[in-house]
């Protein structure tokens, strides 16, 4: 569902082989006396969502491999990763959200799947050899960055154990097919925005999973507030239900609007026009306790589906926006405000951007703001 390429620039460090010799993922260059290092060329990362019923036996994570095909400018088709020999495959490793997801139970139950495929220089351009052998132009990192690629990601069961030749263990695999546009286009767009001053390195992200008479105006206020404070505003909107409310803001710098959520992409047969009509636009209770407290509504919301959809949509956004320094995940009724700064927009913008610049400079990777007045006083906010 989402593909990302992390190119590596450092090659003066050694990565030991992840596997035993002649097994899955072996590093043949470890035994090469002329090549005492194993630098990476890039790391490929994938994120997807699957129905739990279709991934039984894969819930605990495991390994797999990647194959790609593309066409060169001269029309010649190129294929990589199809070698049957285990030592010549590009091996990947995956994990799922099994045991780490929300307490809500969506129906049907889904699992998020994260996959990483480390690509060594040997795997990208061929093993280093003295003599007349020419290095290859690139088997994985380069094509995915520069070309339209057709790929297949093979996941093996969690119980799969690599076996050395000539033993061959045949296991059932899950195969995900995908097409990937050149990654360079997004990288070029990011650099262009940095050069002309439009780039915003701190972002807020929200996922709209339901609609009522209040959600449209709330989303408009949310987007206008954070955009004016210098944040990048990322909006995922199930069924594109709120487009008409914020279309006047979409021309502003720093607002990214997507008329879908991850569940729409993963389960189009469920999230269809009939589901939209069934969901309706009337007010709903999200928890039974709300009804017990006297909140009047016609029915309970499909809270489990909405919560899981938002969680997986946020995971998707984190992979899609790896260039950002900060991403805050917020509902549209949550507004970040620093009382120590002046109440005018200019002062708030300077204070909030400076605060998160400092967090990034300190190497803070993840943090949580509690939603209580004046409770987040750390570093003055």
Give an overview of the whole structure.
The structure is a single chain. The chain has 381 residues and is an alpha+beta fold. The protein starts with a strand and ends in a 20-residue tail after the last helix. It is built from ten helices and twelve strands. It has helices at 121-125, 141-146, 184-196, 215-228, 243-246, 262-266, 273-279, 288-292, 303-320, 345-361; strands at 2-7, 40-51, 62-71, 77-80, 90-96, 110-120, 149-155, 174-180, 202-208, 232-237, 255-258, 326-329. Strands 1, 2, 3, 4, 5, 6, 7 and 8 form an eight-stranded antiparallel sheet that branches. Helices cover 25% and strands 22% of the residues. The radius of gyration is 24 Å and the shape is globular.
Keywords:
381 residues; alpha+beta; 8-stranded antiparallel β-sheet; 4-stranded parallel β-sheet; 10 helices; 12 strands; disordered C terminus
Please summarize the sheet with the most strands. 8 strands, antiparallel
Instruction: List low-confidence stretches.
Output: 10-37, 375-380
**How would you classify the helix and strand content by structural class?**
alpha+beta
The amount of beta strand, in percent, is 15-25%
User: Number of helix segments?
Assistant: 10
Estimate the mean pLDDT confidence: 80
Total E-strand runs: 12
Helix content: 10-25%
Query: Gyration radius, to the nearest Å?
Result: 24 Å
Give the overall silhouette: globular
Order of helices and strands: EEEEEEHHEEHEHEHEHHHHEH
The termini sit apart by 37 Å
């Amino acid at each position: 569902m989402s593909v990302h390429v992390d190119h590596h620039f450092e090659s003066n460090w050694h990565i030991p082989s992840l596997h035993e010799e002649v097994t899955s993922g072996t590093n043949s260059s470890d035994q090469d006396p002329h090549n005492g290092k194993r630098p990476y060329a890039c790391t490929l990362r994938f994120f997807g969502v699957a129905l739990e019923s279709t991934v039984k036996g894969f819930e605990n994570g495991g390994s797999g491999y990647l194959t790609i095909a593309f066409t060169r400018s001269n029309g010649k088709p190129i294929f990589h990763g199809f070698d049957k020999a285990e030592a010549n495959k590009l091996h990947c490793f995956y994990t799922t959200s099994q045991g780490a997801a929300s307490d809500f139970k969506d129906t049907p139950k889904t699992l998020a799947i994260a996959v990483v495929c480390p690509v060594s220089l040997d795997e990208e351009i061929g093993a280093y050899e003295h003599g007349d052998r020419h290095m290859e132009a690139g088997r994985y990192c380069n094509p995915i960055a520069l070309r339209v690629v057709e790929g297949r990601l093979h996941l093996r069961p969690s119980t799969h154990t690599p076996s050395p030749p000539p033993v061959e263990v045949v296991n059932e695999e899950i195969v995900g097919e995908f097409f990937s546009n050149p990654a360079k286009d997004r990288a070029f767009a990011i650099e262009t925005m940095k050069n002309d001053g439009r780039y915003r390195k701190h972002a807020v992200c929200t996922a709209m999973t339901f609609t009522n008479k209040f959600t449209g105006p709330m989303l408009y206020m949310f987007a206008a507030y954070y955009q004016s404070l210098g944040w990048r505003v990322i909006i995922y909107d199930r069924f594109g239900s709120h487009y008409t409310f914020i279309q006047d803001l979409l021309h502003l710098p720093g607002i990214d609007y997507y008329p879908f959520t991850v569940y729409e992409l993963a389960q189009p047969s469920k999230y269809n026009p009939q589901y939209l009509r069934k969901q309706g636009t009337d007010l709903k209770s999200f928890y039974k306790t709300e009804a017990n407290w006297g909140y009047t509504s016609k029915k309970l919301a499909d809270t489990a589906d909405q919560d899981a959809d938002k969680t997986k949509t946020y995971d998707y956004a984190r992979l899609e926006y790896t260039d950002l320094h900060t991403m805050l995940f917020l509902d549209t009724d949550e507004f970040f405000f620093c009382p120590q700064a002046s109440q005018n927009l200019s002062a708030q913008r300077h204070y909030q951007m400076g605060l998160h610049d400092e967090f990034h400079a300190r190497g803070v990777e993840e943090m949580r703001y509690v939603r209580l007045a004046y409770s987040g006083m750390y570093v003055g906010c």
